[in-house]
Amino acid sequence: METSLKHKRVLTGNEAIARGFYEAGGTIAASYPGSPTVEVLEKLKEYKELYAEFSTNEKVALEVAIGGSFYGARSMAIMKHVGVNIALDPLMTFTQTPTNGGFLLVTGDDPGLASSQNEQDNRLLGKFANMGILDVADSQEAKDFTKKALEISEAFSAPMMLRITSRVCHSRSTVTVEERQEVKAKGINYDKEKFCMIPPGSIKAQIFMRERLNKLEEYAYTTDLNRLELKEDTDTLIITSGLVYYNLKELDPNASIWKLGLIYPISEKKAKEITSKFKKVIVIEEMMPFIENELKLMGIHCEGKKHFSFTGELDIQNIAEGLYEAGILPEKKVYAKRFVETVPRAPLFCTGCPHRPTFDLLKKSKAKVVIGDIGCYSLAMLFPFEQSNIIISMGASIGITKGLRKAMSKDDQDEPLVAVIGDGTFFHSGLSTFVNMLHRKEDKENITLIVLDNRTTAMTGGQPNASSGLYNERDDMKVGIKTLLESLGFDRVKEINQYDYKAAEKIFKEEIAYEGLSIIVANGPCALKYNMEKPHFYVDPNICISCRACIRTNCPPLRMIKYEGIEKLKSSIDKDMCVGCSVCAQVCPVNAIKSSKNIGREDEKVDN
User: Residues 147-157: what's their mean pLDDT?
Assistant: First the structure.
């Protein structure tokens, strides 16, 4: 039960957003898991007063939240920055309608590409979609701005965007938490002209959007979401938002600061009033010159990206260097070396990962071109597998493969093409691309599509997907991928156990050699999600021939060591890391790797 008294907690930015939605009387929340915002929905699931789901993809998540808003319930959709690309089609039309229940889109931007394939700045998409945008600086703001955004949304009938960056998502700070305030849903608004977005309704909506933004700009003139911190005896103003504000405060430059919380729309009247009092105006913001360009469109002279990087995070050192270059800091600060030399460690598949034998087999196959996709299996493009030639976006591998195949066929090139896609990505955005493979399919075009089915959305923490229910009872979707593909009309779909190395090897050879379209559904539970823990394996050094066949599977417990009394290095297995997947034993040509379930304690000592 919640106490009626305010009290403080240390929360991540993600947790604070969830808390803010809960306190604001939020009802419907939907998301698709993608770093850095995964934790928001996971925390929301803990609040029984509201409905929260991980949807099939970001478009569906947005539509679920839109549906809640149409009923007049406070609703929120959460996704990483590139997820908004998937949701953009309904978003661009939904923002033409008046908001019935408060609506908030949370976008997790990723300066520095900590976990993403690009560094797009979704403030630009927020403006493109005619949304008001709030920018978060710490966990307290994450909670407060979530609540405020829902209030603004209802007051101005405007969908709002809350922009948070990776570091704020994951960093922790003190937050004052309060009771939940129940907000009763208004019910459906039956004014069809406002919500059926076909002409002539959508033509009128363009005028409505412009008027709504004008009202938001008037609100921006007086809002306390933006604050001016004046410093005496300075002719310099620094305009900033988000986490950059706190990094700037650490430096304490001789300048006044206008800290923006509502970054779009900016009140032109307010901006001109404030900036007119200063000789020099500097804008510090991460990634694109969004605020800088907004001010320049108003005719306000300012500088920004001239002194600060357009890419990556802006830490204290970056800001100090830019302010020195801009003539704000009197001397260039010298900082200690940022990076300490450490032993490099390449990213690896987890111990027992079912994808490891698949990519080991692909490396040994005749497939020279392998088209990858987004997921844990993206690691296969790295050493030692190096089995992805192209990786673009979720679900893109299948469509790209078709285009490649058609282009190669026109050039009389018939070498095999292989595409891989994970089960989460298959349900996210792969189904439509698979259906498209049936269009103008040629019998002699060699394409092998591999669906890696570990029955979880593994890369973002093991969230469920449409096939997870086949592996456990708590997940309620039990879609069999092989059955689904066959029902779509594919006549050559093979299913394999990824851990059965010899059987999988046979199928791979057959399907890659097959002159036509074939699909392999490669099953095997995520070892981390499903806590694989079978009897560990060990190496008999007296049998091992040091061929390194097991080492080349790249499983973390395996390494070459020096055994007492044996001159050559022999392979070894760290029994504390081994989960008993058996792949190493299956690739050993001399049966030197054995399961500990068949031996006594004394025999185990040979590998320690």
Answer: 98
CA dihedral 315, 318, 324, 327 (to 10 degrees): -80
Where in 395-514 does DSSP place strands (E)? 417-422, 447-453, 493-497
For 231, phi then psi, to 5°, come to -120, 135
- Contact 26/50 with Cβ under 8 angstroms? yes
Q: Give the mean pLDDT of 46-70.
A: 97
Note the residue count of the chain.
Answer: 608
Q: Is the pLDDT of residue 3 over 90?
A: no
β-partners of residue 228 are: 258
- How many Cβ atoms sit within 10 Å of the Cβ of residue 586? 19
Residues with Cβ within 8 Å of residue 311, at least 6 apart in sequence:
111, 112, 119, 287
> Nearest-5° angle of CA 387, CA 389, CA 392?
115
Question: Judging by beta carbons within 10 Å of its beta carbon (0-12, 13-18, 19+), is residue 278 exposed, middle or buried?
Answer: middle
Mean pLDDT of the chain: 94
Q: Are strands 28-31 and 51-54 parallel, antiparallel or unpaired?
A: parallel
User: What are φ and ψ of residue 13, in 5° steps?
Assistant: -60, -40
Single-letter residue type at 375 = G
- Both tokens of 230, joined, read 């004046």
Contact between 311 and 283 (Cβ < 8 Å): no
pLDDT of residue 334: 78
Q: HEC states along 258-326?
A: EEECEEECCCHHHHHHHHCCCCEEEEECCCCCHHHHHHHHCCCCCECCCCCCCCCCCCHHHHHHHHHHC
Q: Which is more confidently placed, 348 or 297?
A: 297
CA distance 149 to 270: 21
CA distances from 136 to 184, 240, 252, 319, 589 (A): 27, 11, 20, 18, 57
Q: What is the pLDDT of residue 474?
A: 87
Q: What is the pTM for the complete model shown?
A: 0.92
- CB distance 454 to 525 below 8 Å: yes
Residue type at position 585: A
Token readout for 546 is 């040091």
Distances in whole angstroms, Cα of residue 40 to Cα of each of 15, 45, 363, 582: 6, 9, 38, 37
CB 79 within 8 Å of CB 37:
yes
Report residue 118 as tokens: 């690009």
Contact 494, 520 (CB under 8 A): yes
CA dist 362 and 508 (Å) reads 8
CA distance 183 to 185: 6
Q: Is the pLDDT of residue 471 over 90?
A: no
- For the range 560-566, what are the long-range contacts, defined as Cβ-Cβ under 8 Å and sequence gap of 24 or more? 566/541, 566/542
The rounded distance, in Å, linking the Cα atoms of 555 and 548 is 12
Mean pLDDT of 596-606: 58
Cα angle, residue 342 at apex, residues 337 and 343 outer, rounded to 5°: 160
Which segments within 64-137 are labelled E, that is strand? 75-80, 103-109, 132-135
State the pLDDT at residue 335: 76
